[in-house]
Specification:
There is one protein chain. By secondary structure, the protein is mainly alpha-helical. Helices cover 21% and strands 4% of the residues.
């Protein structure tokens, strides 16, 4: 492992004191906890990758970008019902007028 200052000089040896900190457990710091907004953004991004555009079902795995939809909508192959969530019902009309 080489530091960024010595990485472009392969003929020199790297003897900087910062060398090898990635492997030292005593210098490790805990991972930062994401905020609620970051978690919502990640959930929306994953929902976009897991939701079929044709039938609206959200699967527990990412769908193929090449197909653009689930395999059942693409060629009619039945999909296991335990591998997706049914699409949510549209919101009811609640206007007074």
């Amino acid at each position: 492992m080489r530091c960024k200052w010595c990485s472009y000089r392969p003929q020199w040896s790297c003897n900087h004191p910062t060398r090898g900190f990635l492997l030292r457990v005593d210098l490790a710091v805990p991972k930062r906890v994401p905020t609620l907004a970051q978690e919502w953004a990640l959930d929306r991004a994953m929902a976009a990758r897991q939701t079929c555009g044709d039938c609206g079902r959200r699967f527990f795995f990412c769908l193929s970008k090449k197909l653009g939809c689930c395999i059942e909508c693409f060629d009619g192959t039945p999909v296991d019902p335990s591998s997706y969530l049914a699409p949510a019902a549209p919101a009811a009309h609640r206007l007074a007028a």
